[in-house]
HAD family phosphatase
Amino acid sequence: MATRKNVVFDMGNVLMTFDGHEFSQAFTSSEEDAQALYEGVFGRVEWSLLDSGTIDHQTMLRVALAHTPERLHACVRECLARWPEHSRVIEPTNDLALRLHEAGWGVYVLSNASDRIEEQLSRTPVFGFLDGIVVSGRERLMKPGTAIFQLLCSRYGLDPATCVFVDDNADNCEGARAAGMDAFRYTGDIAELEAFLGGLG
């Protein structure tokens, strides 16, 4: 019996868009204000701490308010509450995930994201048939460290050698390879990704 193949998708800029500049523009009325909002929220190191589960959303809000002009504080609050609404589905990868699922592949998500991940992911076509999700903000483990990939495999009973990890970040792909997976850096060329997966036999 053939070993089941598994594909593990990153979320941001693979299944859903993530663009802090675009999000900031959605909650402001000028480029100057959008840049100030971006620098106070998405451009801060604390954003990574939020994704790692090191700080919570209230702490992120306090930090963002402390680093943006007072005239933008209402924008900061609205942005932090509602930015996931402005993350758009990337249709080609979602369509590919559906076809892989229908062909018998396991389909998983492993993302560096906060514990609010479902506010984005639940709007994707892939969400309804995922075999598992691992998110850094809940596990307090981050890509590209190998531990989060090992956790995915142990939790869902996967052999890393049967898994292909798809991410837009080269370092994260290297982390997956170090954990024993195959990996593909996705740059928006869906045909290239399909060819890579098809070449795995």
Notes: The longest strand covers residues 106-111.
